[in-house]
Amino acid sequence: MANGTEIDLEALERRYAQERDKRVRADGMAQYEPLSARFAAMARDPHADPAFERPAVEAECEVLIIGGGFAGLLAAARLREQGIDDIRLIEKGADFGGTWYWNRYPGAACDVESTIYLPMLEELGHVPSERYPRASEIQAYCRKLAERYGLYDIALLQTEARRLRWDEARARWLVLTSREDCLAARFVISCTGLLSNPKLPRIPGIESYAGHAFHTSRWDYAYTGGNEAGGLDGLADKRVGIIGTGSTGVQVIPHLAASAGHLHVFQRTPASVEVRNNGPLAPDALSGLKPGWQRERRDNFTTIVGGGYAPVDLVQDGWTDIIRNVAPRLEDGTPVADAEAIRRAEMRKAERVRERVDAVVKDKATAEALKPYYHYFCKRPCFHDEYLDSFNRRNVTLVDTDGRGVERITPAGVVAGGIEYPLDCLVFATGFDFLTDYCEEAGLEVIGADGRTLARHWADGRRTLHGMQTRGFPNFFMMAIAQAGAAVNYVHVADEQTLTIAHVIAQSRRKGAETIQPTQEAEDAWVEEIVAGSQARRAFLAACTPGYYSYEGQREAGTSLNDFYPAGPMPYIERLARWRADGLPGLDLAFPSPGAG
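^ thats the sequence. predicted structure below, dont judge the formating
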């Protein structure tokens, strides 16, 4: 058993540095490309009717919401609660759900407990079926929310917003879409998601592959057979390869292993995988709880996982267990602000993860290759009960590239370590753009009050107030975690942001304001606060094994201000609440000229 005396922490630090150095590449984030352009065929929506057509819409509305995932759904719900009903919504997919619409790969599920992840459970009287729900259940819940708030009647589905231009004379955003719609909106809320733009690795020869290939966010069940529960009988006689062993790979690999004739897992960096302990929830599991139980439970989780203090742990799952193991506390539970004590505890926790690999994986060489050697919080931890066991199957081969990654792809398969592995099917579990260029990720051209594009305005980094508004782009709001609160449970932050945005819009209307945006002083002060508080996190990530948290070890100029609220997610949420209560200081309201129509 690992303890403080059995682990040579300095030797581990050296090992971590060696593993990092193997993986640092000069091209950084440029080693990926969007699932578009030359791979446009792979970006096709497998769930939508390809023959869908409708007439172009020309309309005006009070508020336009872009995106139909949880953020867009919550924005609409909070606006409805404020009595704002003149709403339109644009969604790229053929239905609501956002990331849960697109990600339907076998094993797709949430790693945050359903009772705190699914919003508005009390309002809808809904009881999830499992502690960690599958993608199909989450998407069904999104549809339930959309129906509850009458959003199907106001939604333009299978439609992408392409360009937003501020019309100063009309004080309206003019919006053009992929279906030639022309919409005018007084306010726009961009809810395009954190993980909405799939990416592929720029591996030499990738375009030459002649077998069947797809990205996990566009899973091809017509080829594999089965469904999200597995049963991929179409792969029974197939040689399958998968590139990517992050959160998605960890969930999908057990199902590929159970069904494929042979599975080759190409690994650059091992994931940190702990026990999930999923299970069903009884139909009466939430009955008898006092009103407000979900907010209390959600706040408790975000406080603990954000490093704060709570006298009790209401959720008691793998996430809160992490903090119990890596955040030293005094006898009364108060966190200890001792960087060295935290380092020791975190490295002991990581050692226990590696010990689990030894306990589960039978082949010693494979087990050694599956052990993650990096600081625990360098990458998002994973939780799964079957992933490691998959490597005990005779039809599964781990192709560990020792940090170098796949060398090239040929028409016949994948080359790694100088060996070509012939494949019938190649699956890319290579994730999404994350906190890079906002406009590129969102697929939007946003042109502000002076004709300046948002992309140009943020060329040297984002500048916002609370991560949600930026000066020069009046009546425009965005859902984001850059310069905002970053939580394990993103939906918690999204709910508080949408509540705040709806409140700002309602107050603007109540006061008769024509436009609302941050003052320059308030925006500057917020950015300075973010920068001043981010130095420790930046230094930590700079020493991390490359990944999307650390911009693959090469941070570009345009991402220089993409840091989070330094005090943590719960203090950010509390800061928003105080801001609302204080009357929204730092906002610049402009009113119509007397006699203006």
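Confidence is low (pLDDT under 50) at residues 1-5.
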